[in-house]
Amino acid sequence: MSKVKYAPLNGSYKQDKEGSLKTIEITEKLRSKIDELTQHLVKSNYPYDTLCWALAEFEMIFEKGRKNYSEHEVIEREKKIFDSSLDYDDLCWFISNLKIYLEEVKLYP
User: From start to end of the chain, where are the E strands?
Assistant: First the structure.
């Protein structure tokens, strides 16, 4: 898997974008949202490649901001994630963590 600049569930999320640092506290409410989304994704049985694409897009938003990346970059990232053979449940967990963080810092949707 590609190296990502976030550390899920360590007490805070950090984003270093153009010199700014955004930190949010991981509350029980956020932890619960992450767990619920993870379970939803796991139970939905989305195809593995679809989840890889979702994680790749969230990583691009995290690293470059909304709409500041190309489809080619997402494709390349998706391939790296797919080739990493990340466990399905772990993939769902990474997606959930990153999606919740991006929502909290208003980068998604």
Answer: 12-17, 20-25
